[in-house]
Design a protein that fits this description.
Keywords: Glycosidase, Hydrolase. This is Glycosyl hydrolase. Pfam families: Glyco_hydro_32C (PF08244), Glyco_hydro_32N (PF00251). One of its GO terms (biological process) is sucrose catabolic process. There is one protein chain. The protein has no helices and 50 strands. Strands 22, 24, 25, 28, 31 and 33 form a 6-stranded antiparallel sheet that branches. Strands 23, 26, 27, 29, 30 and 32 form a 6-stranded antiparallel sheet that branches. Strands 39-50-41-46-47-48 form a 6-stranded antiparallel sheet, with no helix packed on it. About 50% of the residues are buried.
Length: about 700
Amino acid sequence: MVQSCFNEEYRPQFHFTPENNWMNDPNGLVYHDGVYHMFYQYNPNGNTWGYMSWGHAISTDLVHWKHLPIALECEVDSNGNVMEMFFSGSAVVDVNNTSGLAVSIGKDRNGKDIFSQPMVAIYTSTYPTAHTTSNGHVIRQGQQSQSIAFSNDNGLTWTKYNGNPIIPSPPPDYADQYNQFRDPFVFWHTPTLKWIMVLTLAMKQIILIYSSKNLKDWTLESQFGPYNARFGEWECPSLFPLYVDDNTAAEKWIILIGINPGGVIAGSGTQSIIGSFDGKTFVADPSEVYDPAKVPCGSTVFQDFEATSSTFEDLGWTGTGDFVGSGPRKASTVNGGKVKGYLGNGIMTTYLFGNIGTGTIASPKFTIRKDYISFLIAGGYYPYNPATAGTPEDNQVSITLVVDGKVVHSQTGTNTETLVWRSWNVAGWIGQEAYLIITDVNTGPSAHIHIDEIVFSDIPKDEANWNDFGPDYYAAATYNGLPTSERTVIGWMNNWAYANSIPTSTWRSAMSIPRKLALKTIDNKVRLVQQPVSSLSTLYTSSLYSRNFSVLECGETKVNVPAPYNTRMKVALKFTRGAGIKFGVILCSNASNTQETVIGYDFLGQNIFVDRFKSGNSSFVDSEQNAFPGYFIATMPTKSTDVIELNILLDWSSVEVFDGKGQVAITSQIFPLDHGAADVKLFSEGGSTRSVSVSIHGINSVWK
């Protein structure tokens, strides 16, 4: 194995990465005796997914990490057949020895045994090869079962429990899901004096809740789901309590759920649901659940595409190219009946001749009179790119909103045939004339778009409560062993749409910055908020740049940040709307502006955005359907007098963006090609921005 020096191209300098090889989900996060343990999905044999094992690292501050030997290693027989892989799970410290797995570690002054406090890992055993275990369990090929292993030396060495698997199969009603039954998260529930386990039936979008007195024998208590983002696979659940506004008498429970595919962009994503838990059943708060069949109260339906015997021209729309003379189609007949999630019977679709049809379909003009436009959308991920739109390089398959001749909002599909709700805030254009245009100029894989139920409303039509609005935050796991007020989460900073291909060597994948979670009441709604852990500030340099502008004029303002900190820094921005339409910062920019990552706030669209269309290398995806480039937004309405805060963490191959209250996060990988150019620039577009405050600190490497 090549010894890493942690300064390879794109190697994160303050995010956790494995020394070598492949890593994905964080597992077994547990705090014990002043030490944070992080286990993680790991391939000891290469830097793509396979031979899944549990890697292990420890920290005393969640910033500096020490790599330890593999905790649980994939088992292979003498013929090279993989017999058992160790998929995702959790870890607990059994302080009361409910499991009976403790051992004597000495005697007290009275000669009585002093027992260890066993660390117990609860994980999914995945069996690629059919066989019978030494204790008589008949294992089917592809079976997923729940197992435990234990350590009596603080996680340094591990022993598999000889009664594994402890939960061999899913409940009888779901017996056919034996190969999609995984990712146990376990914690101690003090009110019932029981261990609680949540795990998923991945393809059913269901979470099963079990209880146990001893970590070995488990009873099914209830199930939850599907709710909100309900297609793709549900994975890596967590269930935990938090206090509302730091009030210990106001406790709520949160479920975190990974979805893949089916994230807010394309590929992977993480949603949260707030509710209550009584030791047996999780009940979602009514305000946390979104019915996909209902449009917002008071909505005006602009087009529902139910007139399947009409042409678009009959409906006042205009087609070009292959879509001239076409019209809405019965959804049940499109793409072999694969389309799901539509309302009524009809949809707009460009899947008329398979994926080969190209052209546009434009709506009649209308005056914007409500704050939101919402619609159902499905199809391939081919986003609108302003730099290539209308050129020979244009490959978009999208719906866009045009105001005064300019595209002000755009949306593409998420590589699925299930329609999902997306909403645009259009409050900034109230009273102006606009139109919608569906563009499909691509004939590649899944190069089509389906649209249904376009509505105008005063509130958005939400699909889910996304924990992060970027493309690269998945399998979020929280720490056992910490107080409720210190609940800390780490996510895998990657996306299954391209994870195996990102241009890094000799390792692949990083973890997000650990984030502290809380529940805060914002705009009369209880929201899950997150901020980087406070210990990250121990890495900050003294101020490299600090300046206040009463007015920042339209254009770009260069900021001098010395190397090496121009590629790893914290940028804190505060500002208030002026005459401009966008404000933010440009990072990793070269002199020709052919490389840049743009982060900011859109005053008219009322959203925080990250634009990585020109961030650097995106050609590593070996497919015409490239899910890496994109423009990612998180809607966050503000008033004209509000002070808006953005906190940005830049590392060698990532950006993480948080608003000042922590209600919005966007996590995105970037892979700059021009390493010698890392200019930093402020920008104010379309006019000035008022009361701008900028503070920049470098971030020191944790590897030196």
